[in-house]
Amino acid sequence: MPNNNTKSSFEPRIGIVQLVFGIIYAFVTGIAIVLAYYVWDTSVKAGTPQQPWMQYFFIVLFAVMAAKSFFMYARIKILLNNGVHTVGTVDSIEPVRGITIVRGRIDVKDYGEIEIESRYAGESVAHELKHFLEDEHTRKLPALVVHGKSPRGMFVIKTYAGHLDQNSINALKVNHK
């Protein structure tokens, strides 16, 4: 049976990865432009002008891939900036092979309840988050919902070096509804 948690989850780290790939693709596009000029210039100097069709192909290919990556990065940034802060209910917190998986639910206005899943680096986050929730006597954490045809959500938990960020621990406290 497929896991529906990831279908309604939102992962902003994909935007950072797309930005890195976009920069790499733009760099490769620049190299292809320089190579195309070199091939054309060398053939003109040799007296047999030729068009560098292969370099043109790679210029177009990598320019399209760079544009797609920058578009995806910009789209994710817009979604993050336009997301609505809300509260989600935690169903489970599991440390699995070096990561912490937090599963839960968010009640989205005019849509219903969605299941989400957020992943964080480090297994210590799971233990620290469980202790935090026990100390606060709650199962609620802050969340972000991005509205659209099918809304997506994520828990808003800041971590640093595989642990809960101690400077933002007060941001995790929400109203106990």
What features would you describe in this structure?
The protein is of the alpha+beta class and 177 residues long. The chain is built from three helices and seven strands, in the order H-H-E-E-E-H-E-E-E-E. It has helices at 13-45, 53-82, 124-136; strands spanning 84-96, 99-108, 112-121, 140-146, 152-155, 159-160, 163-164.
User: Strand count, sense and closure of the main sheet?
Assistant: 5 strands, antiparallel
Write down the secondary-structure element order. Answer: HHEEEHEEEE
Using the alpha-carbon principal axes, give the shape.
elongated
**Number of helical segments with 4 or more residues:** 3
Mean pLDDT: 86
Strand content: 25-35%
Radius of gyration: 23 Å
- The number of distinct β-strands equals 7
Find the structural class using helix and strand composition: alpha+beta
What percent of the residues sit in helical stretches (DSSP H or I)? 40-55%
Q: Based on the structure, what is the oligomeric state of the protein chains?
A: single chain
CA distance, first residue to last residue: 32 Å
Within the largest sheet, what's the order of strands?
3-2-1-4-5
Instruction: Note poorly predicted spans.
Output: none
Outline the secondary-structure elements.
Layout lengths: L12 H33 L7 H30 L1 E13 L2 E10 L3 E10 L2 H13 L3 E7 L5 E4 L3 E2 L2 E2 L13
Helix pairs in contact: 1-2
Keywords:
single chain; alpha+beta; five-stranded antiparallel β-sheet; 43% helix
Give a brief rundown of this model.
The protein is α+β, with helices and mostly antiparallel strands and about 180 residues long. The protein has helices at about 15-45, 55-80, 125-135; strands at about 85-95, 100-110, 110-120, 140-145, 150-155, 160, 165. A hairpin with a 2-residue loop joins strand 1 (about 85-95) and strand 2 (about 100-110).
